[in-house]
Design brief:
Elements: H1 7-27, E1 40-41, H2 43-53, H3 58-65, E2 69-78, H4 81-91, H5 93-96, E3 103-109, E4 112-120, H6 129-144, E5 148-150, E6 153-155, E7 162-163, H7 165-181, H8 194-200, E8 205-214, H9 219-228, H10 230-237, E9 243-250, E10 258-267
Parallel strand pairs: 1-3, 7-9
Antiparallel strand pairs: 2-4, 3-4, 5-6, 8-10, 9-10
Amino acid sequence: MLLVVSAAHIASASSTLIAVIDEIRTQGCGRHAGAKPALRSDPRLDRVAAELASGGSLRSAMLDAGYRAVQSATLEASGSDAGIASALAKRACKDIANPVFRDIGVAHRADRAWIVLAAPLVPPAPHDAQAVSRRVLELVNEARASARRCGWKRFKAAAPVVLSDALQRAALAHARDMAGHSSLSHAGRDGSTAGERATRAGYGWRLIGENIAAGQSTPELVVADWVKSPHHCANLMSGEFSEMGVAFAVEPQSVSGIYWTQLFALPRAGN
């Protein structure tokens, strides 16, 4: 016997499953409190879920679908609607109740369902660049105000740094270079180093350090990631640096969507 499943039937099954997941999300489960708002069905994530159902990888499926996520999770369950709901409430409560996730995609194969939850990348607008730089500076100086361990090395509290226009220009040039080539690297496409790029921007330096990142949508997220990384944290906490530049570049067609460059420096005398 040939079983024909219509698109309308699949759409109805997906809507029912999303409603079940939203009910779990709203009520909370296990040790996790309920979360709002309700998840939004996103056709791009439906395509991602379908790729996963066919054995594809999450990373390549996200790229193919054109969805840039700050964070994502995949869930899989089988059985009747009631069985799937019960399994998700028991095994996937942490992800379903996570308020960071805003979008959902679903795919069905027979009695099995694949679910993708995601927090979309919403990068700052280019005209907010100055406000973003000031916020990064504020967060960096808050971090420098307290002693902390960066990996195996312990750092004392350090004096605040100030923004440098020249370092800002150098940081922006490298962020744009990385975004334009989907490349997260300290080396420029022309082979340049952080020091060479600072010199080009008119900055005379005695000591320089560079942090880079990709995929973070806010100053809070990118600074938190730098603080968690031993080498980036060491640059951020170094008492030898007195000036900073930071910039981001957004390229929707790139792998990560947004790229960041942060430069710390000690200026040359008379600079």
